[in-house]
Amino acid sequence: MDQPYIEVRGVSKRFGTFSALKEVSFRIARGEFVCFLGPSGCGKTTLLRCIAGLELQSEGSIIQGGVDISWLPPSQRDFGIVFQSYALFPNLSVAENVGFGLVNAGEKAAAIRARVTELLELVGLGGQEDKYPAQLSGGQQQRVALARALAPSPGLLLLDEPLSALDAKVRARLRREIREVQTRLGVTTIMVTHDQEEAQTMADRIVVMNEGRVEQVGTPAQVYDEPSTPFVADFIGVMNFLEARVDGPDSVRVGANAIAADTRAWTRGAQVNCAVRPEDISVIERGSPGEGLPATVTEAESLGAFVRLYLRLDDGGAELRADVQKTAAGRPHPPAGQAVAVHIPPGRVRLYPRGG
Questions:
Q1: Please, what's the b/e burial string for 229-251 (b: 16 or more CB within 10 A of its CB; e: otherwise)?
Q2: Cα-Cα-Cα-Cα dihedral sign, residues 13, 16, 19, 23
Q3: What average pLDDT does this structure show over 76-100?
């Protein structure tokens, strides 16, 4: 990244003795779509509010377009924002809501009408200008709030969990629509979400946060396939963790079982957590060639396109989850109590310090 459009440098925020943000730093390129992702209370909304000037950081600085905006009031910052509640004016029509900021900025009536028409067409609400918020569905209200935020042509668009109040099918559709609008306009966008699927499908990069700190910044593929910390590995998707001991240059030992893994960065005897995704585990019949680790099925769940098998390794009692496509699992799936074998590809095993 050459010259970032947004740069957050060592930002901390305290509320009394509580530290909501702890030395947060990252950079965002112009035109990027970035998601702040993390559990409730991790600091992601506080960070968004600091960027908007709705909260002032205790330490650190925020740079936008090469200008230090750290201590500027919101009115002097270049952004549009969509809140979780949408915050539409119930007594104003759709057109009046979208054009509200332009009216306050002193734009001419003809220019406002043209901009409102353009944006409502862009968000799929052409012809709805005269309706009021109470006459719209939740998804339509969300589109109005998005159009209002975009009306002044801001350099930065901030989205504070804008889809959380909608049902699953509407959320899925609006995810695509918001991303299409963002891509078409090329506006730099930051969205706060606790929804992994939302972040994975919408973001160019994800900032994963936990307890006020940034755990990892990366593309959706990077945070899923190459989680840099145990928290990210556990928070993004589903992960199996097995307590293990480094056995040599190419294996770890879980109980009496050896699992192939790249251990070149570890010393022999080191205590580690061995992490592997459920979809990377193969479950095969006992007695198959190179069968792998002996295990027993303890439970099976049908989850639509795949079956999740809960397994216990025969030697050591460690538990695993394996996701098996129904076409591969066959029907019926292996029942509870059935003896199977587990194969874990060495290239899909990640190691972390025990307790780290």
A1: ebbbbebbbebbbbebbbbeeeb
A2: positive
A3: 93
* Residue 293 CA neighbour count, 13 Å, CB half: 28
End-to-end CA distance of the chain, in Å? 30
Question: Do the beta carbons of residue 212 and residue 20 sit within 8 Å?
Answer: yes
Q: Is the dihedral of CA 266, 248, 355, 311 positive or negative?
A: positive
Dig out the tokens for 204 from the structure: 């160019």
**69 phi, psi to nearest 5 deg:** -105, 15
Packing angle, helices 138-150 and 94-104, rounded to 10: 20
The pLDDT score that the predictor gives to residue 322 is 94
Residue 191, exposed/middle/buried by CB under 10 A (0-12, 13-18, 19+)?
A: buried
pLDDT at 85: 85
Q: Quick check: 190 and 28 in contact, CB under 8 A? A: yes
Give the separation between CA 272 and CA 124, rounded to whole angstroms. Answer: 52
Q: Does pTM top 0.85 for this prediction? A: yes
From residue 60, give the alpha-carbon distance in Å to each of 67, 190, 203, 210, 341: 14, 19, 25, 19, 53
H or E element in which residue 144 lies? helix 138-150
